[in-house]
Amino acid sequence: MKNSGILSGAVPPIDPAGRVHLVFCVGDCADARAAATAWAVQALAAGRVATVVPAATAAEVAQFVRRSCAGSRVLIAGPRREAMAAAAAARVAGALPCETTTYITAVQGIALFCPHCGETRDVDAEPGAVVACGSCGLDLEIRSHLSGHHGTYLGAVA
Ligand SMILES: [Zn+2]
């Protein structure tokens, strides 16, 4: 069974043919941890080995993949940016595309606070970009400073 690609939506199942499953959560994401838990449960239920790394960096993913034996399956869950970086690192480290599953959790982007209406919305944009407030529609420039209080970015009226 081929189990390749980049998926979102429902958590994809593990490839039961894999004897060893390397499971990585990237980004600090509850959905990714839930997916990793589901994968580990499936692997153990199938009598397979599961190695779960709860908060992996791309470098750690590469390290584990390099040390893994042939035929291991690589499962990555996280927000798009982190998951794609981890998948790329796994590829470079030698994981085959057909052995790698990348599960994209909700595309979160960043949390942007609007000083005009006081709402915080997730936007799929980078600091420096100008986006419309999801609540009041005002154009906001995303300041690069991350607010320590709420983990949000502050928007400035553009
Ligand atoms: Zn607003």
Structure, explained:
Helix 2 runs parallel beside helix 3. The chain has helices at 30-45, 58-67, 80-92, and strands at residues 5-8, 20-25, 49-53, 73-78, 100-104, 110-113, 120-123, 130-132, 139-146, 153-157. The chain has three helices and ten strands. The strands form two sheets. It has a five-stranded parallel beta sheet with strand order 1-5-4-2-3, with helices on both faces. The chain is of the alpha/beta class and 158 residues long. A hairpin with a 6-residue loop joins strand 9 and strand 10. It folds into two domains: 5-104, Rossmann fold (3-Layer(aba) Sandwich); 110-157, Rubrerythrin, domain 2. Zinc ion is lined by residues 114, 116-117, 119, 133, 135-136, 138.
Low-confidence stretches: none
CATH level 1 name of the largest domain: Alpha Beta
At CATH level 2, the architecture of the largest domain is: 3-Layer(aba) Sandwich
Domain module count: 2
Distance between the termini: 51 Å
- What fraction strand? 25-35%
Rg value: 18 Å
Q: Let me know the largest β-sheet.
A: 5 strands, parallel
Per DSSP E runs of 2 or more residues, the count of β-strands stands at 10
How helical, in percent, are the residues? 10-25%
Which whole number gives the mean pLDDT?
87
| Bound ligands, named by name, code or SMILES | zinc ion
- Provide the CATH topology of the largest domain: Rossmann fold
Topology as a string of helices (H) and strands (E): EEHEHEHEEEEEE
Number of helices: 3
Structural class: alpha/beta
Give the spatial strand order of the biggest sheet: 1-5-4-2-3
Overall body shape: elongated
The oligomeric state of the chains shown is: single chain
Protein name: Dimethylamine monooxygenase subunit DmmA-like C-terminal domain-containing protein
InterPro entries: DmmA-like_C
Domain Dimethylamine monooxygenase subunit DmmA-like C-terminal: 112-155
Pfam family, one: DmmA-like_C
